[in-house]
# Entry
Amino acid sequence: MAEAYATLERWARGFNDGDASAVAALYAPDAVIWGTLAQTLTTTPQDIETYFVQAARAGLKTTLGQHVTSRISDACVVDAGHYDFTRVAGGQTAVIPARYSFVLLQRDGAWMIAHHHSSILPKPIG
# Structure
């Protein structure tokens, strides 16, 4: 399962480098993203790359946090956890706590992201 999680670490490095092509290359051709700020599902390789181009233009960075990886089969894992997005605007750093789930599939010996859901972490109730 460490190999699958290494794909998410590469995802975070590419995201932080603003390398939309490298990030998009980690997704399976039929992958789906339900992005943190997206209004619709992102379902094509071109739209996935565009999504990450927009994140880079917005100056977003991320830090992976606590997570749990669950094996579904020898070729499928789910990783669910927490990450923070940061953005500097007007000299101020905004931190946006979020939660995620990734479904990763092993295809031709490589782990690829098949599904990615991300949402802003809600404030505690009460």
